[in-house]
Amino acid sequence: MTARVVRCGDDGDRASAWAGWAGSADWPQCPRRQARPRLAMHQDSSQLRACLDPVRGFRDEQLRRGLTPVDHARANAAAVRRQSAENRQRKVDEAVAASVAASRVATAPPDVRSSGYASTAYHPGRPGSASTADAAKENAGGDNCNPHGERSDKGSKSGEPSGSEWVKKREYGRVPAYLLDIKLRLAQQHAAKQAKKEAALIPAGMRVLPEEEREEMLGALGRTRAELERQMQALPFVIETPSARRHKAELDARFAEVEEALVLFSRRTVLVKDDE
User: Fold this and answer.
1) Partners of 271 in the beta sheet?
2) Which of the chain's ends, N or C, has fewer CB atoms near its CB within 10 Å?
3) Where is the region Disordered (predicted)?
4) CA–CA dist 21, 23 (Å, integer)
5) Rounded-to-integer distance, Cα 56 and Cα 263, Å
6) How far is the C-alpha of 15 from the C-alpha of 5, rounded, in Å?
Protein backbone atom coordinates (compact mmCIF):
# COMPACT_ATOMS: atom_id res chain seq x y z
CA MET A 1 0.00 0.00 0.00
CA THR A 2 1.38 3.40 -1.02
CA ALA A 3 1.43 6.09 1.64
CA ARG A 4 -0.24 9.27 0.62
CA VAL A 5 0.72 12.64 2.03
CA VAL A 6 -2.08 15.19 2.27
CA ARG A 7 -1.15 18.83 2.30
CA CYS A 8 -4.05 21.22 2.41
CA GLY A 9 -4.35 24.75 3.47
CA ASP A 10 -7.53 24.52 5.53
CA ASP A 11 -9.63 21.91 7.23
CA GLY A 12 -12.10 21.67 4.36
CA ASP A 13 -9.43 20.60 1.91
CA ARG A 14 -8.09 18.09 4.40
CA ALA A 15 -11.55 16.56 4.92
CA SER A 16 -12.19 16.25 1.19
CA ALA A 17 -8.81 14.62 0.73
CA TRP A 18 -9.55 12.08 3.43
CA ALA A 19 -12.94 11.33 1.92
CA GLY A 20 -11.39 10.68 -1.48
CA TRP A 21 -8.78 8.43 -0.01
CA ALA A 22 -11.35 6.41 1.99
CA GLY A 23 -13.21 5.46 -1.17
CA SER A 24 -10.08 4.41 -3.07
CA ALA A 25 -8.49 0.96 -3.18
CA ASP A 26 -5.59 2.14 -0.99
CA TRP A 27 -7.84 2.52 2.04
CA PRO A 28 -7.00 -0.26 4.58
CA GLN A 29 -9.73 -2.89 4.99
CA CYS A 30 -10.47 -3.74 8.65
CA PRO A 31 -11.93 -7.18 9.49
CA ARG A 32 -15.65 -7.15 10.25
CA ARG A 33 -16.68 -8.14 13.72
CA GLN A 34 -18.60 -11.38 13.89
CA ALA A 35 -21.11 -12.49 16.51
CA ARG A 36 -19.72 -14.66 19.27
CA PRO A 37 -21.01 -18.25 19.03
CA ARG A 38 -23.48 -19.31 21.69
CA LEU A 39 -22.33 -21.91 24.15
CA ALA A 40 -24.46 -24.97 24.84
CA MET A 41 -24.12 -24.49 28.58
CA HIS A 42 -25.77 -21.04 28.27
CA GLN A 43 -28.85 -22.56 26.61
CA ASP A 44 -29.12 -25.64 28.89
CA SER A 45 -31.34 -25.14 31.93
CA SER A 46 -30.42 -28.44 33.59
CA GLN A 47 -27.99 -26.74 35.97
CA LEU A 48 -30.66 -24.35 37.19
CA ARG A 49 -33.09 -27.24 37.54
CA ALA A 50 -30.51 -29.23 39.50
CA CYS A 51 -30.18 -26.32 41.91
CA LEU A 52 -33.91 -25.75 42.34
CA ASP A 53 -34.98 -29.41 42.25
CA PRO A 54 -32.01 -31.66 43.09
CA VAL A 55 -32.07 -35.42 42.68
CA ARG A 56 -32.98 -37.13 45.95
CA GLY A 57 -31.21 -40.44 45.82
CA PHE A 58 -30.81 -43.21 43.27
CA ARG A 59 -34.51 -44.14 43.26
CA ASP A 60 -35.53 -40.56 42.49
CA GLU A 61 -33.12 -40.56 39.56
CA GLN A 62 -34.65 -43.80 38.25
CA LEU A 63 -38.16 -42.36 38.53
CA ARG A 64 -37.14 -39.26 36.59
CA ARG A 65 -35.74 -41.46 33.85
CA GLY A 66 -39.00 -43.37 33.63
CA LEU A 67 -37.68 -46.52 35.33
CA THR A 68 -39.33 -48.44 38.14
CA PRO A 69 -37.09 -48.94 41.20
CA VAL A 70 -36.68 -52.51 42.39
CA ASP A 71 -38.30 -53.30 45.74
CA HIS A 72 -35.52 -55.45 47.22
CA ALA A 73 -37.31 -55.95 50.53
CA ARG A 74 -40.36 -57.39 48.81
CA ALA A 75 -38.20 -59.59 46.57
CA ASN A 76 -36.29 -60.92 49.58
CA ALA A 77 -39.53 -61.64 51.43
CA ALA A 78 -40.90 -63.52 48.41
CA ALA A 79 -37.66 -65.54 48.15
CA VAL A 80 -37.87 -66.45 51.84
CA ARG A 81 -41.50 -67.55 51.46
CA ARG A 82 -40.65 -69.64 48.41
CA GLN A 83 -37.71 -71.32 50.17
CA SER A 84 -39.84 -72.03 53.24
CA ALA A 85 -42.53 -73.64 51.08
CA GLU A 86 -39.91 -75.80 49.36
CA ASN A 87 -38.51 -76.90 52.72
CA ARG A 88 -41.98 -77.80 54.02
CA GLN A 89 -42.76 -79.79 50.86
CA ARG A 90 -39.41 -81.59 51.10
CA LYS A 91 -40.11 -82.60 54.70
CA VAL A 92 -43.57 -83.86 53.74
CA ASP A 93 -42.11 -85.90 50.89
CA GLU A 94 -39.50 -87.40 53.19
CA ALA A 95 -42.16 -88.33 55.73
CA VAL A 96 -44.30 -89.91 53.01
CA ALA A 97 -41.34 -91.88 51.68
CA ALA A 98 -40.53 -93.14 55.18
CA SER A 99 -44.13 -94.19 55.79
CA VAL A 100 -44.30 -95.97 52.42
CA ALA A 101 -41.09 -97.85 53.19
CA ALA A 102 -42.43 -98.86 56.59
CA SER A 103 -45.72 -100.04 55.06
CA ARG A 104 -43.84 -102.10 52.48
CA VAL A 105 -41.82 -103.80 55.20
CA ALA A 106 -44.97 -104.47 57.22
CA THR A 107 -46.90 -105.92 54.28
CA ALA A 108 -43.98 -107.94 52.81
CA PRO A 109 -44.63 -111.73 52.55
CA PRO A 110 -42.82 -113.81 55.20
CA ASP A 111 -39.76 -115.82 54.30
CA VAL A 112 -40.56 -119.49 53.60
CA ARG A 113 -37.36 -120.71 55.21
CA SER A 114 -38.21 -119.06 58.51
CA SER A 115 -41.91 -119.97 58.49
CA GLY A 116 -41.48 -123.56 59.64
CA TYR A 117 -43.04 -125.18 56.54
CA ALA A 118 -41.12 -127.86 54.70
CA SER A 119 -39.55 -126.89 51.43
CA THR A 120 -40.32 -128.90 48.29
CA ALA A 121 -36.77 -128.55 46.99
CA TYR A 122 -34.49 -131.58 47.11
CA HIS A 123 -31.91 -131.49 49.93
CA PRO A 124 -29.71 -134.61 50.02
CA GLY A 125 -29.05 -135.85 53.53
CA ARG A 126 -26.26 -137.81 55.10
CA PRO A 127 -25.48 -141.25 53.60
CA GLY A 128 -26.34 -143.13 56.77
CA SER A 129 -29.76 -141.51 57.34
CA ALA A 130 -32.66 -143.76 56.35
CA SER A 131 -35.35 -141.12 56.81
CA THR A 132 -33.50 -138.77 54.55
CA ALA A 133 -33.19 -141.40 51.84
CA ASP A 134 -36.93 -142.17 52.06
CA ALA A 135 -37.77 -138.49 51.77
CA ALA A 136 -35.53 -138.21 48.73
CA LYS A 137 -37.32 -141.16 47.12
CA GLU A 138 -40.71 -139.59 47.77
CA ASN A 139 -39.59 -136.32 46.23
CA ALA A 140 -38.19 -138.09 43.20
CA GLY A 141 -41.36 -140.12 42.72
CA GLY A 142 -43.72 -137.20 43.22
CA ASP A 143 -42.12 -135.04 40.58
CA ASN A 144 -41.47 -137.27 37.58
CA CYS A 145 -41.58 -134.46 35.04
CA ASN A 146 -38.73 -132.60 36.72
CA PRO A 147 -35.88 -135.01 37.23
CA HIS A 148 -33.51 -132.21 38.31
CA GLY A 149 -35.64 -131.07 41.23
CA GLU A 150 -37.21 -128.00 39.57
CA ARG A 151 -40.72 -126.91 40.60
CA SER A 152 -43.59 -126.86 38.17
CA ASP A 153 -45.64 -123.67 38.45
CA LYS A 154 -48.27 -124.60 35.86
CA GLY A 155 -50.76 -125.80 38.43
CA SER A 156 -50.01 -123.31 41.20
CA LYS A 157 -49.92 -120.19 39.04
CA SER A 158 -52.32 -121.08 36.28
CA GLY A 159 -54.67 -118.22 37.16
CA GLU A 160 -52.02 -115.48 37.56
CA PRO A 161 -50.65 -113.46 34.62
CA SER A 162 -47.00 -113.87 33.79
CA GLY A 163 -44.40 -112.19 31.63
CA SER A 164 -45.54 -109.10 29.73
CA GLU A 165 -49.15 -109.44 30.89
CA TRP A 166 -48.29 -107.46 34.02
CA VAL A 167 -47.34 -104.45 31.89
CA LYS A 168 -50.66 -104.54 30.06
CA LYS A 169 -52.64 -103.93 33.22
CA ARG A 170 -54.59 -100.70 33.50
CA GLU A 171 -53.14 -99.95 36.94
CA TYR A 172 -49.53 -100.61 35.90
CA GLY A 173 -47.22 -97.71 36.77
CA ARG A 174 -49.85 -95.79 38.76
CA VAL A 175 -49.49 -94.82 42.39
CA PRO A 176 -51.93 -96.84 44.48
CA ALA A 177 -54.80 -94.99 46.04
CA TYR A 178 -53.82 -95.97 49.57
CA LEU A 179 -50.39 -94.36 49.11
CA LEU A 180 -52.03 -91.14 47.99
CA ASP A 181 -54.28 -91.27 51.04
CA ILE A 182 -51.27 -91.80 53.29
CA LYS A 183 -49.45 -88.87 51.70
CA LEU A 184 -52.46 -86.60 52.07
CA ARG A 185 -53.00 -87.65 55.67
CA LEU A 186 -49.36 -87.07 56.57
CA ALA A 187 -49.40 -83.66 54.91
CA GLN A 188 -52.49 -82.69 56.87
CA GLN A 189 -50.93 -83.91 60.10
CA HIS A 190 -47.74 -81.97 59.39
CA ALA A 191 -49.69 -78.81 58.59
CA ALA A 192 -51.72 -79.22 61.77
CA LYS A 193 -48.55 -79.62 63.83
CA GLN A 194 -46.99 -76.54 62.26
CA ALA A 195 -50.14 -74.52 62.87
CA LYS A 196 -50.22 -75.71 66.47
CA LYS A 197 -46.58 -74.72 66.99
CA GLU A 198 -47.15 -71.29 65.47
CA ALA A 199 -50.32 -70.80 67.51
CA ALA A 200 -48.40 -71.59 70.70
CA LEU A 201 -45.98 -68.74 69.94
CA ILE A 202 -48.75 -66.15 69.42
CA PRO A 203 -49.39 -63.99 72.51
CA ALA A 204 -52.84 -63.74 73.98
CA GLY A 205 -55.10 -61.23 72.24
CA MET A 206 -53.09 -61.35 69.00
CA ARG A 207 -53.57 -63.16 65.70
CA VAL A 208 -51.54 -63.82 62.57
CA LEU A 209 -52.44 -61.55 59.66
CA PRO A 210 -53.48 -63.60 56.59
CA GLU A 211 -51.23 -63.50 53.55
CA GLU A 212 -53.88 -61.81 51.36
CA GLU A 213 -54.39 -58.98 53.84
CA ARG A 214 -50.63 -58.55 54.26
CA GLU A 215 -50.08 -58.25 50.49
CA GLU A 216 -52.97 -55.79 50.23
CA MET A 217 -51.52 -53.68 53.05
CA LEU A 218 -48.10 -53.66 51.38
CA GLY A 219 -49.66 -52.43 48.13
CA ALA A 220 -51.53 -49.63 49.92
CA LEU A 221 -48.39 -48.56 51.78
CA GLY A 222 -46.42 -48.49 48.53
CA ARG A 223 -48.98 -46.22 46.91
CA THR A 224 -48.98 -43.93 49.94
CA ARG A 225 -45.19 -43.67 49.86
CA ALA A 226 -45.23 -42.76 46.16
CA GLU A 227 -47.82 -40.03 46.83
CA LEU A 228 -45.74 -38.62 49.71
CA GLU A 229 -42.64 -38.58 47.52
CA ARG A 230 -44.54 -36.68 44.85
CA GLN A 231 -45.71 -34.08 47.40
CA MET A 232 -42.20 -33.71 48.82
CA GLN A 233 -40.75 -33.16 45.36
CA ALA A 234 -43.34 -30.43 44.73
CA LEU A 235 -42.11 -28.39 47.71
CA PRO A 236 -40.14 -25.20 46.94
CA PHE A 237 -36.37 -25.22 47.18
CA VAL A 238 -36.29 -22.54 49.88
CA ILE A 239 -38.88 -22.89 52.66
CA GLU A 240 -39.26 -19.69 54.65
CA THR A 241 -42.86 -19.38 55.82
CA PRO A 242 -43.97 -21.15 59.03
CA SER A 243 -46.87 -22.89 57.27
CA ALA A 244 -44.54 -24.35 54.63
CA ARG A 245 -42.19 -25.57 57.35
CA ARG A 246 -45.06 -27.25 59.23
CA HIS A 247 -46.23 -28.88 56.01
CA LYS A 248 -42.74 -30.22 55.30
CA ALA A 249 -42.43 -31.54 58.86
CA GLU A 250 -45.79 -33.34 58.53
CA LEU A 251 -44.71 -34.92 55.24
CA ASP A 252 -41.43 -36.09 56.78
CA ALA A 253 -43.23 -37.62 59.77
CA ARG A 254 -45.76 -39.44 57.57
CA PHE A 255 -43.00 -40.70 55.28
CA ALA A 256 -41.08 -42.11 58.27
CA GLU A 257 -44.24 -43.87 59.52
CA VAL A 258 -44.89 -45.40 56.09
CA GLU A 259 -41.29 -46.64 55.83
CA GLU A 260 -41.53 -48.25 59.27
CA ALA A 261 -44.85 -49.90 58.36
CA LEU A 262 -43.36 -51.26 55.13
CA VAL A 263 -40.52 -52.89 57.06
CA LEU A 264 -43.03 -54.37 59.52
CA PHE A 265 -45.42 -55.80 56.91
CA SER A 266 -42.55 -57.17 54.82
CA ARG A 267 -41.97 -59.86 57.43
CA ARG A 268 -43.22 -63.40 56.85
CA THR A 269 -45.39 -63.45 59.99
CA VAL A 270 -47.23 -60.31 61.09
CA LEU A 271 -49.13 -60.25 64.37
CA VAL A 272 -52.10 -57.91 64.79
CA LYS A 273 -54.53 -57.30 67.60
CA ASP A 274 -57.48 -59.68 67.68
CA ASP A 275 -60.67 -57.62 67.89
CA GLU A 276 -62.97 -60.62 68.25
Assistant:
1) 208
2) C
3) 100-168
4) 5
5) 21
6) 13
